[in-house]
Amino acid sequence: MEVSYYPGCSLEGMAVEYDRSIRAVCHALGIVLADLPDWSCCGASSAHFLDEELSIRLPARNMEIAEREGRELLVPCSACFQRLKQADKELKKDAARWIDRPYEGKTAIWHINEFFDRPELIEAIKGKVRKPLDGLAGVAYYGCLSQRPPKVTDAPSPETPESMDRLLRAVGMEVRPWSYKTDCCGASLTITRTDIVHKLSGDLFEAALEAGAECMVTDCPMCQSNLDTRQAEIEAIRQRQYGLPVFYLTELMGLAFGNYQATGWWKRHFVDPVPLLRRKDLL
Amino acid sequence: MVDQNGQHGNGGKVGSAMVVGAGIGGMQASLDLANAGFHVTLIEQTTAIGGRMAQLDKTFPTNDCSMCTISPKLIEVDKHLNIDTITAADVIGLEGEPGDFRVRVLKRPRIVDLDKCNSCGDCLEACPVEVPSEFDEGTMPRKAIYKRYPQAIPGAMAISKAERPPCVLPCPANVNCQGYVALIADGRFGEAYDLIRQRNPFPSVCGRVCHHPCEQECNRCELDEPVAINNLKRFAADWVAERRAAGEDPAPPPVGQIDPDKPPVAVVGGGPAGLTTARDLALAGYPVTLFEAQETLGGTMLLGIPEYRLPDEVLQRDIDDMVASGFEVRTGVAMGRDFTLDSLKQDGYRAVFLGIGCTRPAMLTRSTDGSKMKGAELDGVLSGLDFLRDVKLGRDPRLSDRVVVIGGGNVAIDVAMTARRQGAEQVELVCLEGRDEMPAHDWEIQDARDEGVTIHTAWGPKELVGSDGKVTGVKLQGCSRAFDDQGRFAPQFDANPLNSMRIEADHIIIAIGQQSDFSFLAPNDPLWDRSKRFVHADPLTLQTNVDWVFAGGDMQSGPASVIEAVAQGHEAAESIDRFLRGEDLAAGREKPEQKAAETPQREFLLWPRAVPARLPLDQRDGYAEIEQTLDQSAAVTEAKRCLACGICSECMQCVAACTAEAIIHDMLPEEVTIDVGAILLAPGFEPFDPLERGEYGYGQCPNVITSLEFERILSASGPYQGHVLRPSDRTEPRRVAWIQCVGSRDIQTGNDYCSGVCCMYAIKEAIMAVDHVPGLEATIFYNDIRAYGKGFETYYEGAKQNYGERFLRGIISSVKQLQQTKNLLLSYVDDNGRVTQEEFDLVVLSVGLRPSAGTSELADVLGIELNRFGFCRTDTLDPSRTSRPGVYVAGAAAAPVDIPETVMTASAAAALVGEELKDARGTMIREKTYPPERDVSQEEPRIGVFVCRCGTNIARSVEVPDVVEYAKTLPGVVFAEENLYTCSTDTQLKIMDAIREHGLNRVVVASCTPRTHEPLFQDTLREAGLNQHLFDMANIRDQCSWVHFNQPEAATFKAKDLVRMAVARVATLRPFQDVRLEVDQRAIVIGAGVAGMTAALSLAEQGFEAALIERDSQPGGIALRLRYILSGIGPKKGPRLIFPHRPAGA
């Protein structure tokens, strides 16, 4: 299986461990990732807040390339995912406004957890597990951008997604049910209104602990960095220890697959997961 | 009714109507029409009439019991001579014109015969399959055979079936997996064993060694892991063995009635195929002799499977069970040596089955470079098959030091693990295939690895090396691929000399396959196929070149599993039976491609598959069994993981339990065409599915339920017998929230209409909740309260004042569950504008009304238009007509309405049908005539008492013969008898005979409830010429056998009491005549507003004279003062606009 891969800027910088774990997991599963040639900015962060034209034109360029490549498109960053989905919708409506060639719109755009969540891949994933994550209890946190609004994301179950839960169960993790899978963590206000982030992310930590989780798992780089880097501040404000490592889904898949590089990935995390994984006899 | 021109008389109209949907609307319309002189066919999709209203606990604004209100109507519809009810049916076609339609109706198979089923309920106990009850909105289970609800009419049971379950289809022998898993879940292990044995006579063996394709196809794989079907089979088999060891036999082996006149059959080979064939034929009555070359039966199961996987005594108990069927066994006699086909023929055998298995090991002949294999003759080179056989025969071949096993199949694995037990210190296994291609099962490979066997994959033996004639090792060459693109075995080797290795070995055991040993055949034997190497049999019939000789098992399939051999054994027995009866061997035996049932669409709890205990590695030096049997509680828990994909598992327990012989499992769908003059649609509504509103956590949070589920919780026949409990922990909730407008007034789900009933039912449910649980705090989150009907506002105010209901305005955006308590957090903005979070124990979603699921198909079939929400399109001022003339609509199919409005629209639509068919009124009704009534006024009471056994339902607890004897002693009783079912048709004849023969003038029936059965018996009295009121019933089922279940003395005592009371009462009764009054068929309508005019016009159109009286100088009433109404029409423009379908001046 060969798919086009759009890493986006986060996966080259702050979420480089996400990129590495995705590549390792895909390699193990025999999925060939072909980086989208000459990919460019998706227009998230600033462009789509400030300029409507730019908000479509930037991702439209990438979708045009993806269509030429003719493969399914894997977009791990949920902000990129949403921009590309939006551009795809606009191009289908009126391609001529944005690009110089006809647009068929046949490129399937995937974010990580729905990409893996198909029966044959789940089977393959189960088959690759060498070290099941037995006894590791966590919650799957999807965040908002890959799910909402459903008319952009086409998420099958935008309020109660299950795909990441299934994947984590496939690698043996004990996935705790909770009601906050898609609640906002406040990442887009992390610089401008940190006080709101403290409230929103703090509530997520409380809910995760209440649900019996020992870690959180996400497939969104913004959520990961927000929940990871702000956790200590929030602990200080709320006078409470959370100690919740925030994993990328693919990091845990890699760990379960027995990938020897896995331990290197989370060296970049602020909340050190090593003590937890040692306690669970997974390291 | 058809005149000479082929036209119906009566203006070409048929005096009969069809009503589609038997909820309260459909029933009301049917009764109106039938009472007005029209014949009615009432079509209902489910198995019982009653619809949504029957599901409700109470009705607003009077808090009447919904069931109590609807039940008399159920009976009335059921007993009405001019209403034919067809349940479990769909309308699938419509032709013709208004007044003369032909409607095609598909009756889905109920599986239960409506006329024979007495609703005794014995089958409910027999059925092991549980699925969520539709009537109870999934809040409680029902059986696969079921009555939709306790008061259901018709009372007969029904069975639901999906496609056949996916576990059954892939089984070579079609063992009913879902059935025995369900029986195990139900604790009926003996029955489970019996069911397995019907298709698989080796439950103990297969429970250990089967490759279980059933589990690969199990739909549960989609959720978590397949049900451990095979371990469950083993559990059932071992449970039976345990009981037998304790001196009981819960499942005695079936024994054939051997008919010495039937032609004798010889079976050659005592492996699974031969044993199965012999058993099947013995059970069919044939005298069968089974010949086995070894001293013991079992074939490869005995000689090829090591004891740590299949202990000998386990195999023996399956074989003993089979031999009990009555075939003769001769061991130690080999074909070719001790007998031949010719000698069998001379001995009188008329058919032979050959199941000689694959007993000759394949040996290494070619090296990886294509040359002849060197060293195959060296000392220390063994065949795997011989090695295993020697171990099983107790010859105890000892090994030492290093052993290399060549081969990648299950036999090779068995050899490797056995080699370790026979003394080898180091065991290495070499095979051509890559790890993922090895033919051995994954779980067996894992076992071997666990025990320290080293596995080298993708290597081929180049040469066996040795010194002094004794083997010392093997040279290996890398295998680049074992299979070609078509998946055929065609190994290719890497020519690179560097890609090679050598393993030192003291023994090399070859396990690379086996073949049948045909050395018993002479070169010119007619059995040979053209190649002169095989004996070929037809794959379908297993018949060989020689017509009276059949062959199967490994001998035909090549080395395969036990269950495949069993399957062939069944087929061979079938063929031999046909052959000996001179029938066509092949007819009807091609198995059509069958679709498997899909995963049922509902929420399932995930819980892990049971894993049987295994012998610890450090205890694995002997042959003790590695895998253990599940214990009873683990097995039952595991069996409950089954999703019951096929719903009914066809285990046939109900057939055995049904004394009325009412169950017909192969019942087929039936299509009927019905002539009617008009059609009235009342298919009702469906509650909105809150899964579409994921933020409310429905389906994820057990304590978030729908309003209809809450109705069932309130109901006495609901999941908690009327106690208000919450689902997660069955405790009484103190804080309950209702969230209004779920799926109503909601643009996102496309339901931007008000459902009209939710405000009132939420208020009612909250009142009832407070009534049930004093101190319960009810909170209703609402948009605005629409209390617009008669008495509604008073009801709403009363709910606030007398029940403390708290009303908070606002739409709740999400429901959060606390994972420990399963309580629910709701955020809302309070009266001061503050965002507040509040915890509740239970959240009820006030779901809106949608058109019922079948409405759009029905509209397609009937060619009527729907509006954008899927409700029937109607005109504002003519709300009961659909877009097709002659087709009318009532109730929630046109728009969301409450019960009173449904009843009104039903009567309104019935009136329109009456207009349409007025010329044909009374032309198709049936009338029953009775013989003249006997005058009994001068007679002393002569009472007959009929005591019902109700199958076993009453007789199980009540000593029915005692009650009969007691009744005979009572004053006035001249006749008493018991009946298996007093309500059955033949018993009615017996009652009539008894009335005539014994001159009875009073009758008492002691059976069930007069609510459903009194009219039946009264009718019998009338037919026998007795006044129907000289009758009484004693309810000894509900009040004796049910109340005093398992207390026969108390039940019998009370039954006698009730009979005595009934006899005493009936003796005092006098005949009573129903009075008929002539009616002047004219009406006065007072008030000529819109309602009065509509009523007067309809009466006139129905052919009745109507006088419309108005105090004003002109008709029109308030409507004359309105400039516009909602739809924009100005009523002042005159009656033509108000009544666009009416002739002017009517």
| Percent range for β-strand residues of chain B | 15-25%
The first-to-last residue Cα distance of chain B is 30 Å
Summed up, the domain count of chain B is: 8
Which chains make the largest contact? A-B, 15 and 18 residues
CATH superfamily of the largest domain in chain B: FAD/NAD(P)-binding domain
- Classify the beta-strand content of chain A into a percent band: 5-15%
Write down the overall mean pLDDT of chain B.
92
Q: Widest sheet of chain A: strand order?
A: 2-1-3-4
The amount of helix of chain A comes to 40-55%
Strand order, main sheet of chain B: write it out: 5-2-1-29-40
Range of helix content of chain B: 25-40%
Main β-sheet of chain B, in a few words?
5 strands, parallel
CATH class term of the largest domain in chain A = Alpha Beta
Distance between the termini of chain A: 31 Å
Kindly state the number of beta strands of chain B: 46
- SS content category of chain B: alpha/beta
Q: What is the helix tally of chain A?
A: 14
Shape of chain A: globular
Helices and strands of chain A: which structural class? alpha/beta
